[in-house]
Structure formats: C-alpha cells, structure tokens
Amino acid sequence: MTFIDLRSDTVTRPTAAMRRAMADAEVGDDVYGEDPTVNLLEERAAAICGKEAALFVPTGTMGNTIGIKVHTEHGQEVICESRAHILNYELSMMAWFAGCVARAVVAEDGVLSWASIREQIRPLGPHAAPTGLIEVENTHNMAGGTVYPLDTLREIGEESHKLGLPVHMDGARVFNAAAALGVPVTEVVAPVDTVMFCLSKALGAPAGSMLVGPRRLIDKGRLYRKRLGGGMRQAGVLAAAGLIGLSEMAARLGEDHENACFLASGLAGIPGVSVERTPATNILFFDVSGTGHTGASFSAALKERGVLINAASGVARLRLLTHFDVDRSACERALGVVREVAAMGVRGTYV
Predict the structure, then answer these.
(1) Quick check: 135 and 170 in contact, CB under 8 A?
(2) Rounded distance, CA 68 to CA 58, Å?
C-alpha cells in the first residue's frame, strides 16, 4: 500500500536534485573546519538571515539547546510560550544541558506579546531565578502553525534589548513564516539575536538544522556542538541537500499553505469533524469527537485505508502537516478517506 503521509513535514524525502548534489558533494573534515560544502551552507544561511555566522547541526533540538546555552547561565529562567517545543518536546535539554528553567506564558494563538512577557521578567534577587533569555517560536507548532506579526517581533526585540535580555527564535519553520508574511526571512529574524531553523522539515532535506547569529556566539556554540556529539566530519553530503533546500524549496512553500487551507475547508464540511483554526501555514489541527472516535482510533482507521495522520494531545484531536511529497490530488484522496471514516461508527458500521 502507498501511504499518503500527513504526519509531519519531517517525512519528506530528498528530491532528485538533492540526491545528485549529495552524490557529487565536495567534502572534508568539518570538525577541522575543512568541509567546503558545510562552510558554504553556513555562509548562505548566515546571509539569508542577515546575521554574521551560522552553525550546521544534526537536529533542531541540538540547535535550540545550543542557542539557549550561548545566551544563559545556570540558574536562570527562559521565558517561552506554554506549548513551546523547547519546553515540551526536547527532553528538558533547557534544564539538563543549559541549567535553566522555563517561565511558561500562556498565549491562545502561541504568539507572545511584549506585555505578557514583561510581567514575567524577574530581576536578580534573593528569591526568584533571574530571567536570562526570551524565546519565541515562529511558526508555532502546537498552536497550529501560527505566525508572529512583524510589529510584535520588533517590539519584543526592542524592549528586551533595552533591558539587556537576548531573544532566541525557534524558527524550525521560519521559512513558512516568511512565506505567509510575504517578506524575506531576513526581515522575520532581524529583531532576534539568534535563530534556529530546520532544513529537514518543509525545506525537504534529509537531515540537519542551522543555528544563526553573532559570530562570537556561533564560535562558542561550535564547542557546545562538539560536547553534544554533533561533530559530523564529512558532513558535506548532508549540507549539499540543505543548499538545495535553501535555493529551491523555500520558494514553493506557498503551495503547502494552500493545500493546508484546502484540507481545512474540506474537513470543515464533514459531519462530526471540526477545524480548530484556518491554517496560516502548513499545520492543521482538527477534532473528531463528533464522530464518536478518539484521535487514536480515528488515526488507526485512516492508516488502515492508506492515510497517515497522527493523533494529537487531547481526546479526539489530530494534527496534519502538508509538504512537498503530498500534492493537491493526494490531499483530495485523503479528504475522501477522512470522510469515509467519519461516516462510520467506531465499530465500523456506517451511521
């Protein structure tokens, strides 16, 4: 059976151009700084983000971990949104490696405001851990791919810097944010000090992420990468695919956003199914409680029929992501399967 895989944009397979580039990549020892393809990828990533330097890391979790560590000291707090990836899905690396604790702030749409951040900032004193870093997630995964307005980002950056506080962006899907806003990535990340973005999600590369920021922090981060086991030697074979992601894949992300909106519209018309919000990018949450299913049972029934969509937190919620490997015709077929499952009772009889 050929599956339509909407579990995540991490499931994308390298394009033919990526495979050719990987096969032909010029390589060296990156721990010595001698891999020309990695060096080129880091230069390109820094230029695209308008920052001084970049660091190629194996994963987004490592990139965020290093990003937090270079800004903070043990015993400090990191202000982030309550559903932030760094808090809930990165095995507590903020505490385990950086020695920091999260100060979680609830934002309905995942987008923090300066007002909500300001009231949580704690100075150095005899009781509370002092604030060491502000973190924003753009797009926000568990809020449904929501995007920070540029004015909000600028205010957070300006006001945080007035207080001497750095800002890190978990920009795993920041190219989706830029596509949704219709501006270059440079403009999206200008207000923050460091940004991590993934090559292995919407950009379609098989592995790798980038941490981008001031050269002094990236140089420091390179040592932390080694401590975390991220020295990958002849990593140019992976960096080559990342270069294709930056040059070719970023420009087509609007198609994924359109497909997500297409799916949202179709799902909203299925009895028993409700869509949480119109997707701003490529992430969509929907609820199937009206069908009598749980998220897990609905997901299992879809899988039996060739569609992969994961259950999410909550009794009857599911999350899907559109990406390069699922075109409009596949989205149409997936909708048909969802419609079929929704029309059946939990015991497999039509209602």
Answers:
(1) yes
(2) 16
Q: Is 35 helix (H, G, I), strand (E, B) or coil?
A: coil
The residues that bridge with 146 in the sheet, in sequence order, are 140
Q: Give the rounded percent of residues in the chain with a pLDDT score beyond 70.
A: 98
Alpha helices in 72-202 (DSSP H): 85-88, 93-96, 114-118, 150-162, 174-181, 185-189
> Six-digit token pair at 262?
């297409």
Residue entry with tokens 């179709």: 266
Q: Which residue blocks in 122-274 are alpha helix, DSSP H?
A: 150-162, 174-181, 185-189, 215-227, 236-244, 253-268
CATH number of the domain at 4-9+252-342, out of 3.90.170.10, 2.40.50.140, 3.90.1150.10, 3.40.30.10? 3.90.1150.10
Q: What is the pLDDT of residue 161?
A: 98
Domain at 15-250: CATH architecture: 3-Layer(aba) Sandwich (3.40)
Domain ranges of the chain: 4-9+252-342, 15-250
Q: What is the mean pLDDT of residues 138-145?
A: 97
pTM given for the model: 0.95
